[in-house]
Amino acid sequence: MLTREDLESYLIRMEVDYEEIAEGMFLVRAGDERLPVVVHHSPPLLFLRLKVMDLAQAERSREDLYRTLLELNASDVVHGAYGLEGDELVLSHTLELDSLTYSELQASLESILLAASSHMGRIRSLATSPVEGGVS
Q1: Which of 32, 60, 93, 98 is most enclosed, with most CB atoms within 10 A?
Q2: Neighbour tally for 12: CB within 10 Å
Q3: What are the backbone angles phi and psi of residue 92, rounded to the nearest 5°?
Q4: Residues in a beta bridge with 82
Q5: In 3-state terms, what secondary structure has residue 28?
Q6: What is the C-alpha to C-alpha distance for residues 56 and 11, in angstroms, rounded to an integer?
Q7: Mean pLDDT score, 96-117
Q8: Taking Cα atoms as reference points, which of 44, 43, 31 lies closest to residue 91?
Q9: Hey, what CATH topology would domain 4-128 get?
């Protein structure tokens, strides 16, 4: 099973910026946009979580947004999923520590960053466009 120390050595090897914000919980900044991903070592699982946006102030009906997120979950986000945590839209991956390799962790981190950066414009436009029939 991958230990917390093993995880930290993987992060060092990936040459990403990270800090341990709590025991076994790392804030990792990687990729071109340096998006913050929380990596939480919680045996027997490893959680990767990226806050995409706060939905509390969305200006329109969320139906189109939710439909798009479900479509992205089915087509573009292979190892993870978009979800809601309170009023936050998050992108997350869950990995088993028992057999986790360096390559799998690196691929998951890259996947979550690629999905977030390539979907961000579309998601934000759906969440912040004025409600039809409303004041523009």
Answers
A1: 93
A2: 10
A3: -140, 155
A4: 91
A5: strand
A6: 33
A7: 93
A8: 31
A9: Yope Regulator; Chain: A, (3.30.1460)
- pTM, two decimals, is 0.85
- pLDDT bracket for residue 78 (50, 70, 90): confident
pLDDT (tens digit, 9 = 90+) per residue, 28-40? 998 777 889 999 9
Report how far residue 29's alpha carbon sits from residue 47's, in angstroms, rounded to the nearest whole number. 15
- 3-state secondary structure (DSSP) of residue 131: coil
Nearest C-alpha neighbor of 55 from the set 93, 85, 82: 85
- Domain ranges (residues) in the chain: 4-128
How many CB atoms are closer than 10 A to CB 5? Answer: 9
Is the pLDDT reported for residue 136 higher than 50?
no
Q: Is the Cβ–Cβ distance between 122 and 129 less than 8 Å?
A: no
Q: In 3D, which of 107, 115, 126, 71 has the Cα closest to residue 90?
A: 115
Q: Which ranges constitute the DSSP H helices of 19-135? A: 63-75, 102-128
